[in-house]
Amino acid sequence: MAQNTPKGYWIGHVTVDDPQAYDAYRQANAEAFAKYNARFLVRGGAQEVVEGALRPRAVVIEFPSMAAARACYESAEYQRALALRAPVSMADLCIVEGWPG
Q1: Shortest CA distance to 47 belongs to which of 38, 36, 60, 34?
Q2: Which of 7, 8, 19, 22 counts the most CB atoms within 10 A of its CB?
Q3: Which pLDDT tens digit goes with each residue over 45-79?
């Protein structure tokens, strides 16, 4: 991979309805994130919304590339984890290309 290849990021805003069940998702997603060299930059810490409206939990995950970010989301490992999250939370998630500079 070229040195200046932009990284890929997942940016998510999540409302968790069942924290105990959501923990099962967090444990299950570790396999996919390790496989695709993901790194959490933000994982549900305190947030202050200064414009608009967001869900209560923010997540930013860095991947080595857009291709890795997409492949992780589409992977069987992540889809298994997602099946645990979907019934117990609502999320807005996008995959974003990082700044190449």
Answers
A1: 60
A2: 8
A3: 999 999 999 999 999 999 999 999 999 999 999 99
**How far is residue 21's CA from residue 87's CA, in Å, rounded to a whole number?**
9
Q: Are 60 and 8 in contact (CB under 8 A)?
A: no
Q: Are 57 and 44 in contact (CB under 8 A)?
A: yes
Tell me the two tokens of residue 18: 């069942």
pTM of the model: 0.91
DSSP 21-79: HHHHHHHHHHHHHHHTT-EEEEES------SS---SEEEEEEESSHHHHHHHHHSHHHH
pLDDT class of 4 with cuts at 50, 70, 90: confident
Task: Report whether 13 contacts 54 (CB < 8 A).
Answer: yes
Angle between helices 66-74 and 76-85 (to 10 degrees): 60
